[in-house]
Amino acid sequence: MEEKFIDAVVFDLDGVITDSAHYHFLAWRELAHELGISINEIFNERLKGVSRMDSLELILQEGNQQNDFTLSEKETMAEKKNLHYCEFLKKLTPQDIMPGILELITNIKFEGISIGFASVSRNASTVLKALQLEDTFDYVVDAAKVKKSKPDPEIFLTACKQLDANPNRSIGIEDASAGIDSIKASGMFAVGVGNTLNKADYKVHATKELQWETIKAEYKTWIER
Predict the structure, then answer these.
(1) SS3 breakdown of the chain: % helix, strand, coil, rounded to 5?
(2) CA gap 206, 185 in Å, rounded
(3) Max CA-CA distance within the chain?
(4) 86-133 pLDDT, tens per residue?
């Protein structure tokens, strides 16, 4: 086992651990359709890593309806979307874990490095249970444990604090621009999964390309700058 020079690795959920981000899109699209608003996969990129209420605001703005509803009505709509989403979640199984993720987690744990989980999803525990990963992470931060959504760094800083990890010696893995901004603002090394995450310190196109030895090498280069 190599000498530990990384305190923790913190994973996002949607698009990194599993592709539940697509289920979010389907649920939002259904709600948007009921409001007479059309959204597509391209628009959905703006919703990734964003809280439920902030996502709703973006959709209402898209239809120029942001001032048409009370806060109570918006909360009802957000809950309706969540019910749609939970129906989709019932289809999740361990087979829906993204390619390469289990191997990556195994290699990180072998070196005695703490593993955290940071997701603004209020259904994170449900997803982890469906994937049979509920005992995999040393600490889980979800929307119930933070006040500010990504791109604010609170969620990643909270994970590091609970893992007794120095953010400057830790790595965050995300697939959304808001998430990368959150990681960078926390002082962590940012690994991006996706083609458009140019602010990431290291970027791959897909989770199957997340090789632990390569990530460590890139991280080492980053801290030596």
Answers:
(1) 50, 10, 40
(2) 23
(3) 59
(4) 888 888 999 999 999 999 999 999 999 999 999 988 888 889 999 999
Contact 78, 121 (CB under 8 A): no
Give the helix/strand (H/E) hosting 10: strand 8-11
pLDDT tens per residue across span 22-45: 888 999 999 999 999 999 988 988
Taking the C-alpha atoms of residue 225 and residue 36, their distance in angstroms, rounded to an integer, is 51
Q: Please identify every residue annotated as catalytic.
A: 12, 14
Measure the CA–CA gap between 91 and 117, rounded to whole angstroms: 22
Phi, then psi, of 61 in degrees rounded to 5: -65, -35
For the chain, the average pLDDT equals 93
Q: What is the pTM of this model?
A: 0.82
Contacts of residue 49, Cβ cutoff 8 Å, sequence gap at least 6: 12, 14, 120, 150, 151, 174, 175, 176, 177, 178, 179, 182
Backbone angles phi and psi of 131, in degrees to 5: -85, -5
